[in-house]
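Input.
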Amino acid sequence: MSQPEEVRSAMHQLIATLDLEKIEENLFRGSSPQVGWQRVFGGQVIAQALMAAQRCVDRDRFVHSLHAYFMRPGDPAVPIVYEVERIRDGASFTTRRVVAIQHGKPIFAMSASFQLEEPGFDHQLPMPSVPMPEDLMGESEFRKIFLAQAPEVVRKYWGRERPIEIRPVSLEHYLSKESLDPHADIWVRAIGVVPDDRHYQAAVLAYLSDMTLLDTSLYAHGTSIFDADLQVASIDHAMWFHRPCALEDWLLYTQDSPSAFGARGMTRGSLYSRSGALVASVAQEGLIRRRADA
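Output.
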């Protein structure tokens, strides 16, 4: 079944955003879609930085891990310059460091490691047993029920078309103000066609990996990232790419938050294919602070 044009365009726009302009050797420029937000979505910066690093690595080497820090909020009104440093080229592994710059200052830094594919041991933890996405409420239905009573900032976030659809296994976290178990199982999928290219697939996977993580660290406290009295932002982000994934179907993003302390919340995530293959693991710490004037 073909997707409506306005939905397809969201993925087209994301892919265009990932097609960075090369302005000099090891130097790239990326733009941000104008969606009305005051800062650039962190997943976009991770994905663009990964694309910049991948363009400075041999095509037969693929990312297996990245470790990043967010230092300043990104300004969506101006381009982001990505500077790649070629740290090491080994027989099997390649290391790159990327710094994202705006207004003459670094806003983000990332180290990424790439590997020449080789055979080896193979095991993984099993995927949790959860309802399939077809048995869950779709995003359009969720919007009709949830957005009618939601604050304006929530309606603005959920009301626009996005390149990634999310389908939570449970809606309790979105509708309750009670303290709940800091765990979530969320089906996610790309809406539209992702190029048959592992570099773009890894970048889109990195993009969606930044979605919903901070939410999970707030479940135990009966609140969410949409609480106007909270100051919420990603601090760091780590990701391990275990197995290639073509992003043709739904992925299960299972998440838990083992700790919140000192105005920081930590969340872990695992991404599984529908068939149960563990595609990637994620860890993130974020700022979750009550505003002084709240």
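The helical segments are 5-18, 42-54, 139-146, 152-159, 172-175, 198-209, 213-218.
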